[in-house]
Batch of 4 targets.
Target 1
Amino acid sequence: MENTLRRYDIDWLRVIAIGFLLIYHVAIPFQPWGVFFGFIKSPENLDSIWIPMSMINVWRIPLLFFVSGMGLYFSMKKRNWKMLLSERTRRILLPFIVGILTVVPLQVLIWQHYYNQELKFVFNPAHLWFLGNIFIYVLLLCPLFYFIKRNEEKWRSVLNRVFDNPIKLILIAAPFMLSVVLIKPAAYAMYAMTMHGFILGLLAFLFGFLFVFTGKVFWDTMKKWKWSFLSTALLMYSMRFYFWELEGPKYLMALETVIWIYGIFGLSFSYLNFNNKYLSYLSEAAYPVYIVHWIFIHLGSLWIFNINIPVSLQFIGLAIFTFFGSILAYHYLIRNLNILRPLFGLKLKSKAQMQINPQARISL
């Protein structure tokens, strides 16, 4: 069956989502409110970049939650609940704790230095809040997931009747829409450390698991209707841009989120379900890069914002610096030092595995 096979498109989605996260975070220093979210503010704004950023903003974090729920399904296939919780503790909770004790304080110190503030330790999850949420979702939803797994054929039959029709799938947006109506978030994209972000992530994690659990029926529906989903999502974004200056009614933005996600799933299943050496490398690199990238945004800001060049070139320069700084930190330190690997969510390697043939490495 489809859901018993390795899903390379999901691996690609994880890599692509982390890539969009980096670009999104690089754009924040060029917004007038960037400093209030812990970024070093550029001397000049680049307001135009926020137009495309607002398009991806409604789905970039939800996509990661959906993909995380999918990943849990594959982890459950070969583990009982005790093994799963042990594995998730090592892969999620340990990097989360290490990150808020080391990585986040370091990036805060850089920010404090730039603004001539008192240098002091700050206990704050910052961008790692996502990992804390994921671990809580695992604890909350594992009993339900194992119950579903014990009655696999029954639940798959029920879900197949729901996921075989695009209209029925749109109805899945209802709990997302209801949550924003009840919670009333100040801004839809304020996911970090908010009740809105927690509930949205919980729903996305749940449905991500159910989607991949169902298997072929769901993915065939995504593939068949992908262009309809994408054109509808683009139309909703266009309406949000022209009528509401990018921040429309929250319930419509929740609906737009789900439709974007469906379209992206359809594209990934149609064109990204393949493996190559780049995916093997990037799928492992994505997690450590996510953890350390904010440090390199700050370091790049210290240097680039003092260069007298157009603000658009500053943005490009900061994006390049952040990407290569993060990937090089992974390539030469995290992946090759066994003492660091588990601290960044990677498995330990044997001595034989650590002796990598240089010709087999991806050229940077």
Target 2
Amino acid sequence: MCSPAARRTILLCSAGLLATALCVAAPGCARPEGQVFEPLAKPMVWPAPPEEPRIRLVGAISGSGDLKAAQSGMEVFKEMIRGRRGEIAMTSPHSIAVAPGPKLGVTDVGQAAVHIIDLERRTHVLVSGVEDELFETPIGVCWAGNRLFVTDAGRQEVFELDASGGFHNRFGATELKRPVGIAYVATRDQLYVVDGGAHDIAVFGLDGGLVRRMGGHGTEPGEFNYPSHICWDGGDRIAVADSANFRVQILDLDGQCITVFGTKGDAAGNFALPKGVAFDSDHHVYVVDSQFENVQIFTQEGQLLLAFGREGSGLGRFALPAGLAIDKQDEIWVADSANHRIQVFDYLRDAG
């Protein structure tokens, strides 16, 4: 015979299970899909009022929990029983590539892995290696349609993944010393890989065959000193962060230098450690400076237009930022490495 207290416990447990079962069956217990970037209570823009704003903060993503995926009643019930599953978090995001969707490819040097994030489907996959081999130092990343290409500076190779993280190909082991930045040039159907160890750019076909090399070690236009990042403007130009020369070079697709700008210093328009580069739809050049911990915006002739961000951990501030990418909607995605997140901004093209 059960004691009165035991009977009360059984009844309460049964009532709890019944309530949970009813909850699972009821549509109202499901969690709807949330908004990834909630409107900010106080908008953050650059330049500050009363000037016309040109850059606006959208928000930040630090892991799978920020995707706010919808959950069925059964999924909510399972979470109640076993607790929340471990979320995927960013450790030291370094480079970003954005495809329509948007889909993100993000290298994470802290985890020696690649994050593949689909904001439309609200999925987040972490890829740590291929063919039973772990990545060593994944640095650069770019999309070519639904194919994601990743440079691994430690393994001296480029890896090709699909949009789900599945392995397809690898190449460059005999041609590359330290592959870092990478860009896909659609008009030529080629990959432009920055080889920091060789101080040049190696151009590959999508099948992994080496086509040619551009540049070499030096300080003259068209030469490099530990270049790091690269981007394509959608036309006939690329921009390269010539990091140890403290400058950015604008080149044509055959490697001929068009413009060089920047010098070492601590004044506006100078560089301390230029890394990520990207073009917006008006062909302005955005440059991340990891030591200034900001993003500077230039014309292609090197005229400084605006800078945004500064050192710190709050939204709109950076800690050792690295790569960035700008999508077709002029959203600016910045790898805020030491703050373990991606920050997103809008270029307000139609303002003013």
Target 3
Amino acid sequence: MRLTGQRILVTGGGTGIGLAITHALARRDNRILVAARRREPLDAVAAAYPAVSIATVDLVDESAIRGLVSQAERDLGGITVLINNAGIQFNDRYATDDPDEICAHVDREIGTNLTGLVKLTTLAMPQLRRAAEAAVVNVSSILAYSPKMSAPVYSATKAAVRSFTQALRYQMAAQAPHIAVVEVLPPIVDTPMTEGRGRRKLSPDRVARETVRGIERGRTEIRPGATKLVRWIHRAAPSIVERRLRRL
């Protein structure tokens, strides 16, 4: 699938991987709607790319998701590519932190990373089905292979996104074969979410480049950077990967 002349919705597009993907796609004559929870980063995107539409959306709120899909119809004439990139991570310590605060974090983490992704994909499906060629691109994580100690819920949502993506791919192959379903599994990336954590982080720009290249080459799973090696090691010796990832 050529990522030129497409109508693209990117969630979490104000910072990090989503912003890098937006930069890459905006330079390729695509029409883009960028969604994020905070307005300030979106204003910077709009200033850099006047032709790009923006939307402030909280993916925990189903009515907001429905409004985003309606805006995509108005601004783009319907979506041909949906990039589900938005994500949030809390590093709660379950034995010592306040249980009420953790419960609030659980709702937001699962609502943003998983439930919101599934609902947006579902509500965007009529637009994707109208297109001659379309794609759903879900950004999961290297942690879909094995969780890290500091982020149990985040890790669980990424494993769930991987499972949902695989099952959705099976459905589209049978019911709507013109809709490709792609999973991107980045390693630790240098974004605001990982500030102060981890070493040897991959740049968002590299993730964006590998994502665009992978989609255009028809890949269903894109593993930027170290994720390629981790996948093979995990198959041969899972315990090695588990010891490494738990410390991220």
Target 4
Amino acid sequence: AAPEPRLASWSFDDQLAVVLEERPAVFSSTFGGIDPAPLREAGIVVVGTATTVDEAKALEASGVDAIVVQSAEAGGHRGTFLGTFEESLVPLAELVPAASAAVSVPVLAAGGIVDGAGIAAALAAGAQGVQLGTAFLFTPECETPPAWLAALRTNETIVTPAYSGRHARAARTPFLDELAAAGEPLPYPLQRAVIADLAGVDGYGLYLGGTAAPGARALAVAELVQILVAETEAARA
């Protein structure tokens, strides 16, 4: 029998209240619209996530200060909130210049960037900055489980809703294939909640990561950042 899903006991409003109380310098959101007004009134810079030009325009209209454009190559759950997930898989080289031309707020490029050459290319395409995730999974400070890193090194990545009920890019493991073959998943977040007990078992986790994971380097954060800066400067020169 399927186990009862274990869901978070806090609501969106509960989480937002904590953010407003703590007042971080920057608040970054995904999965769709959020009213940035109360956050900005608290002096917090608000960043939204877009996977298409239409989403970038919608976020700018809502009042965000900057937009992360999440390309098809990006690891993790898709931030899509307008249109279909299939339509949102736009390559970084196409998404960055199109979004940059469509909005006036800063655009931050995300997806498939693990080195300075990738950073320089994104900046040349019109981005004002970049957001790297997969590149830092391999740093010791991240303490990513070895099974996760091994899965990203040895498997291709695919975009599928099979594990959590929402489309995400992750390493294609035998278990992920098994879940996909089982049919339509439960709605997010119920699907992941019912298999929560398996998430920590080697081979059965959701090993999120981008397409450039094989090129990520296992370095300390400080060293990685120094190298990324040097590579970017060299590429731009």
